[in-house]
Amino acid sequence: MATVLYITAHPLDPQASISLAVGEAFIDAYREANPADDVVLLDLYKEDIPQIDADVLRGWEKLRSGTDFDQLTDAEKSKVARLESIVDQFVKADKYVYVSPMWNFSIPPVLKAYTDATSIPGKTFKYTPNGPIGLLPGKKALHIQASGSVYSEGPLAPLEMGYNFLKKVLQFYGISSMEAILVEGTASVEQLPVIKEKAIAQAKEAATRF
Question: In the list 39, 118, 130, 178, which could disulfide-bond 141, CB 3.0-4.6 Å?
């Protein structure tokens, strides 16, 4: 039995969000194909994801210097403990499905905060004399991303910093197996039904082999 983190980063629902509609089709098909697997739903807009702020940085520094956890301030303890919980949940999973729109050429801020929370030395990667190495080899990921224009090729390709960013982060963790379902050109009202239908079919097919 595998554990799958289904990570969504859109404030609307599948009826209003193309990325969530495609993601829903994927995860429904995945559950049907893998009924024994544990699928954990993480709606990042409903999760407590601490920012890497002064409390967190000071708390981490105190712990590195040997300060006991109980001696941290209440704010430091709360945020540091929550970040520890987030990354521990991430590390224990076997597969990751990210669902997000492209906003301003990249991922939504809440998803960036989540990647900050999972990018913890000693958990998802470690430093060595020969440079950092990922600690999560053998795991796999999928990113479902919707965008108004086409960024996978053509003149806008250099501006694509959503899927490419997430792919680089996961590769840093040692996750080399990553697929993408890029739902592109959604700003075209005329083409949207065809684009959505094609992406949903692609998602259902991908779910059978993920």
Answer: 178
The reply to whether 103 sits in an annotated binding site is: yes
Strand segments, DSSP code E, in the chain are 3-8, 38-43, 95-101, 125-126, 133-134, 140-147, 177-184
Dump pLDDT digits (tens) for 117-154.
999 999 999 999 999 999 999 999 999 999 999 999 99
Q: What is the CATH number of domain 3-207?
A: 3.40.50.360
Taking the model in full, what pTM does it have? 0.96
Domain boundaries of the chain, sorted by first residue: 3-207
Q: Is 18 annotated as a binding residue?
A: yes
Encode pLDDT of 91-119 as tens digits: 999 999 999 999 999 999 999 999 999 99
For the chain, the maximum distance between any two Cα atoms, rounded to a whole number of angstroms, is 61
17 marked as binding residue: yes
